[in-house]
Structure formats: structure tokens, C-alpha cells
Specification:
The complex is a heterodimer of chains A (about 110) and B (about 120).
Chain A lengths: L8 E4 L5 E6 L11 E6 L6 E4 L13 E6 L2 E6 L8 E8 L4 E3 L3 E5 L1
Parallel strand pairs in A: 1-9
Antiparallel strand pairs in A: 2-6, 3-4, 3-7, 5-6, 7-8, 7-9
Chain B lengths: L2 E6 L2 E2 L5 E8 L8 E8 L5 E8 L4 E3 L7 E6 L4 E6 L8 E9 L3 E5 L3 E5 L2
The chains are: A mainly beta (about 110), B mainly beta (about 120).
């Protein structure tokens, strides 16, 4: 399976919103609603931020939201904060296997 | 909540076999609803799912690694393990273990362990 495609980096000022995409195929994102997003700060383990396309685990602020259209999923971070600076990875079920995105570096200016 | 911790060889010679273990605490590894996964990140690349094992022992592997991978579960020790044979430099990566809830998402991750393949 090929990795899902994410922009290499996005940036925004504190308080702004950023949205970035995760593009797959009709065999993964386009077919299944098992899209999840993970945040990883340097040297730390990935942390689940969104599951099932748009569901937030308990403890994740509602500033984080997910969506999907066709073969592309998106993550929006509203009210950007310094702690949001990290790498973000999307992930999709692909029928018996899992495929991750290439990762997006979010920089808070 | 679950806690996962990887352990094992950090340096592996080319052609040898990698062995890693993931200790699970906070719940029984036999709890229904969970599968147990291995994921890696090679230098400069994104995350790659290696495979997982269900609480009943069913295994699922990445097709690109399937011929070299074995994931097993030890219920008495509450841990699960990864073996990856015929290691090459391309297998140098940070290896993570993670819990896979209802085969929908990875909700808890270990801190990761760096594995270097070098003679």
C-alpha cells in the first residue's frame, strides 16, 4: 500500500486556524470511515487526536476537528496554540491493513 | 488507561533477526476489543504499520513484510512480541507498539525504541 499524502508543513499564528489534508484512494479513505489522526511531539509517542473521521477522544479539545470528502480527509486546528506545534499523521484502514500519511509539520509562528 | 512499553535489541547485525517485546499494563492483554500492533518509523519517512495480533491470536501483517514478520502474544506475561528476520539497513527505524481498539484506531502507544541495523 502507498502512504497517504499529506502536505509537508503548514503554519499559522496563535489564535488562527489551520487545515491540512490527507489524500488516499478509493481503497482506503474513500471506502472506509476508519480515519484517525495522531499528533507527535518530538521524542514522544504519537497521541490519538481524532478517530472514525471526526470523533474526538475524551481529553482532546474541541479545537481539533476532522472531516472527509471522497478520498481526502482533513484535520482542522482552531485557535492555534504553541503546544499544537508538532507533527500530525493521518491513518486509514485499507481492508485488512493500515496505511499512514506522510506527516505534516505544524509550526506556530 | 493502558500503558505500553517496548523492550529488546537496539542494535541488530545485517541478516539477523530483530526481537522486540511490548509489555502491557493497565488491563489484561486478553481483554476483548483490543488487538496489539507494531508500527515503525524509518528515518525521514512516515509511519508504517507492520502488523497486529488480536486478543484471540489472529494475526494480520503488512504484505510488504509478511514473509519476514511474526507477531505473538504471551497471556501469562501480559505482553506481545515482534520478530523480524533478515534485517537490513532499510529496517533501521523507531519501532512502536500500540493498542488497536475494535480494529478502528490506535489509542495507546509505547514510547518507541530505536533499532539500528549495522555490522
Amino acid at each position: 500500500q502507498s502512504a497517504l499524502t499529506q502536505p509537508r508543513s503548514v503554519s499559522g499564528s496563535p489564535g488562527q486556524s489551520v487545515t491540512f489534508s490527507c489524500t488516499g484512494t478509493s481503497s482506503d479513505i474513500g471506502y472506509y470511515d476508519y480515519v484517525s489522526w495522531y499528533r507527535r511531539h518530538p521524542g514522544q509517542a504519537p497521541h490519538l487526536m481524532i478517530f472514525d473521521v471526526n470523533q474526538r477522544p475524551s481529553g482532546v479539545p474541541d479545537r481539533f476537528s476532522g472531516s472527509k470528502s471522497g478520498n481526502t480527509a482533513s484535520l482542522t486546528i482552531s485557535g492555534l496554540q504553541a503546544d499544537d506545534e508538532a507533527e500530525y499523521y493521518c491513518c486509514s484502514y485499507a481492508g485488512g491493513s493500515w496505511v499512514f500519511g506522510t506527516g505534516t509539520k505544524v509550526t506556530v509562528l | 488507561q493502558l500503558q505500553l512499553q517496548e523492550s529488546g535489541s537496539g542494535l541488530v547485525k545485517p541478516s539477523q533477526t530483530l526481537s522486540l517485546t511490548c509489555a502491557v499494563s493497565g488491563d489484561s492483554i486478553s481483554s476483548g476489543g483490543y488487538s496489539w500492533s507494531w508500527i515503525r518509523q524509518t528515518p525521514g519517512k512516515g509511519l508504517e504499520w507492520i502488523g497486529d495480533i488480536s486478543h484471540t491470536g489472529d494475526t494480520y501483517y503488512n504484505s510488504s513484510l509478511e514473509s519476514r514478520v511474526t507477531i505473538s502474544i504471551d497471556r501469562s506475561e501480559n505482553h506481545f512480541s515482534l520478530r523480524l528476520s533478515s534485517m537490513t539497513a532499510a529496517d533501521t527505524a523507531v519501532y512502536y507498539c500500540a493498542s488497536l481498539f475494535l480494529r478502528r484506531y490506535f489509542d495507546y502507544w509505547g514510547q518507541g525504541t530505536l533499532v539500528t541495523v549495522s555490522s
